[in-house]
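Here is one chain, start to finish.
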Amino acid sequence: MRQSCQFLQSRQAPFKRGRTAGVLALAAALAACSQPPSTQEQRDDLARSIIEQKQITTPDGTSTATTTDGYKQDLARRIAQVNSTSVYIERPQALLRAVIVIKYVVDRDGNLVKSEILRSNRDRNAETSALGSLKNTAPFPKPPEALLQGGRIELSESWLFNNDGRFQLRSVALAQMGE
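Its structure:
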């Protein structure tokens, strides 16, 4: 028993660094257990609790990310937080209804400057939902100066839609069923 505890204590540091990832992995593992189906309200409450765990900005509203991918993940979490009733928090289904890829530009103040659909299966409802969720979230946390090129940052994100019309953002999504 003592060796088991020592092993777990030696593994504690990596779990602290990836607390959000650990929480998501634990949520996925628990979801795989045989439980009665959860209600929409329970899933939405869980989504909000997961999304709100990490402080992503400094007091002046600048992102704490140090890389472009980190900033992209911060924005994905923010989009999911603002649009929480439209977000699917469990593993996406194996065959998605739609995948919408949007390229967008954020200026140094966090304003959405431009957005355009790069990839779509022509599902107009999904396209409208994806673009709407992006626009509803702006302004975003300010990007760190080190990530800016010409006073702005260009990013792309994939919205993964299930049949019920809810989505996840690829940057922060769980693996699809069957993966």
